[in-house]
Design a protein that fits this description.
Largest sheet: none
Number of domains: 1
Strand content: under 5%
Helix content: over 70%
């Protein structure tokens, strides 16, 4: 989802389309992070889990810094005259490479009992987070008591 949305971002012809694909990309990133944390919780125990979470946190921290610098360099280079688009398009080969590598390297979870997705609970959580986020963003502007 993240990789395909990155392709949509890189090919976007208008700001509205770019924003729509960025929303999908953000959703894909959130799902990806949840899957990684779930995999760590289900695969590791004890000090192994602590080490895996430390490695995960370190990778996120380093990539946040490197991503900003690399993104700035890519935009400044104006590769093929594409201005900002390569910032999104770089995710495509990386995403497909990681998908292929993870499919071949990570162990499967055959035989594990899996539960059903709690759609109602997930929807209520998403709505609650949306209301919280919007209220935090706009609360400073709307103060009827002043």
């Amino acid at each position: 989802m993240f990789t395909l949305a990155s392709l949509g971002c890189g090919k976007a012809g208008s700001t509205t389309v770019l924003i729509a694909f960025r929303v999908v990309q953000g959703g894909g990133a959130a799902l990806m992070m949840a899957q990684v944390l779930t995999r760590i919780q289900r695969t590791f125990t004890g000090t192994g889990r602590a080490r895996a979470l430390g490695t995960y946190t370190t990778a996120l921290s380093i990539s946040a810094i490197v991503g900003q610098v690399l993104g700035g360099l890519i935009v400044s280079a104006n590769i093929f005259g594409a201005e900002w688009r390569p910032v999104f398009l770089v995710n495509i080969p990386v995403g497909f490479g990681v998908a292929i590598l993870s499919y071949s390297v990570l162990p499967g979870e055959r035989g594990l009992k899996t539960g059903r997705l709690d759609v109602r609970g997930a929807s209520l959580l998403a709505f609650g987070l949306l209301v919280l986020g919007v209220s935090l963003i706009y609360s400073r502007e709307y103060q009827p008591w002043t």
